[in-house]
Amino acid sequence: MSLRAWSLLLVLCGTIFLEGIDVAMLAVAVPAVRADLGLTTGTAAWVMSAYVLGYAGFTLLGGRAADLLGRRRMFLGWLTVFLVFSGLGGLADTGWTLILARFVTGVAAAFMTPAALSIITTSYEEGPQRNQALLVFAGTAAGGFSLGLVIGGLLTQLGWRWVFFAPVLLAAAILLAALRLVPKEPRPPRVKGGFDLGGALAAAGAMLLLAYGVVRLEHGLDGWTVTAAALAAGLLLTGVFVAVERRAAVPLVRLGILREASLLRADLGALLFVGSFFGFQFVATLYLQELRGWSSLETALALLVMGCDAVLAPTLTPRLVTRFGNARVILGGFVLAVVSYALFLPVGPDWSYAAMFPTLLLTGIAFALAYGPLTIAGTDGIAEEEQGLASGLLHTATQFGSAIGIAAVTAVYGIAGGGLGGFRAALVVPVVMVALGALITATGARDGRRARVPEGATEVTV
Length: 462
Description:
Keywords: Antibiotic resistance, Cell membrane, Membrane, Transmembrane, Transmembrane helix, Transport. The chain is mainly alpha-helical. It has 16 helices and no strands. The N and C termini lie close together (about 10 Å).
């Protein structure tokens, strides 16, 4: 790739790094935020959940908006919104203003991230070049989350507001570079029949209600009627959305895209894999801090080894994909994750770090093998005018996966009575999720197809 192509990729990867580091830093800082602002436990939980609601609720709409309204416009505009509301979060002095800021920041990410991914899939030639770009993108996302844990611990020592102000500085730098590097595109043609407003409202409402219901699962049987009502209403609105899309002249989502077996398999796999990863990370963090008494910084440093995927994803994974094919590499990642999480099941009250290290290392390697190739599979072979939609579907799956993973382990932990027994019971959830994902992925690996290199293309290496 040319220097300009690498520079553009760096800017777009900066966006997903920003999103990952933002979430990870706040996860470490929430106890300090709660203590300083005097928040209740429920309010503190909503500081985290509001972002997930905004992200999951609008990602599908965000992906399609990039196709219809312009990828560059959506990317730059919503990156600016992300910057502004992250700054407002740092200035918040009440719980509700902080929750509002996090919700809007999540909405901004829901439009910004699919736009960035669709710019990659339309700017780099399909084949090894695009695969390399997507694997770098995926590795950067993981690196942002891993480094965010450590940086969040350090910044929290200086003051929790820096957890919000640091992303502002990074977003500003990305925005300035993006203005020069993100290519201008022709103004999208006016869509006959207008924008599918009914479908957009139904989709956003359904995703918001379903995400809310999933987040509430962590409460177990407490308030189960509200949880059930939210999920039922979300499913009802999903049915309304499907009905609207079938009748729309220009649907927000062409329902036929969901019949693409590889796309559907990739999205389901991403949901299960990301859900298992975040569920495990959440349980491991609670185990180290609540049961073992480790500080937030000590915990972050202990988990840092999982960030090895940021190095392996753009270096090792492309070679494996070229040699064995996308589906087989994804399956390998799932199988390795099953082994990794299973090794942590007998965790004891005084385990040494050496006993935990194999799981933490294997988890990072598994992420490097599975996540990037899942991103490729979720956008591969999709028409250019629907790349934003495919990206939105993929990110919707990952956001719901993270919410389901965290909610499920929290619910199981509570039902099991907490303590060491609760941790062990909760750790079964990630094992089950990746095992199910491995079964789904195996259906795509049967034919053993290898990655095809377009005629005249050459492999790109870092």
